[in-house]
Amino acid sequence: MNRRIGKQTVKLETKPVIIETASIAGVKEGEGPLRDTFDKILEDDSLGEKSWELSESTLQRITMRLALDKAKLEQSDVNYILAGDLLNQCIGAHYSVRDFDIPFFGLYGACSTMTESLSIGSMLVDGGFAEKVMCLTSSHFCSSEKQFRTPLEYGGQRAPSAQWTVTGAGCAVLSSKGDGPKITHVTTGKVIDKGVTDITNMGAAMAPAAIDTLTAHFSDTGRTPDDYDLILTGDLGVIGSDILVELMKDEGYDIEYKHKDCGKMIFDIEKQDVHAGGSGCGCCGSVFCGYVYRELKRRNLKRILVMATGALMNTMIVYQGESIPAIAHAVAIEC
Question: Which CATH fold topology does 1-335 show?
Answer without folding.
Answer: Peroxisomal Thiolase; Chain A, domain 1 (3.40.47)
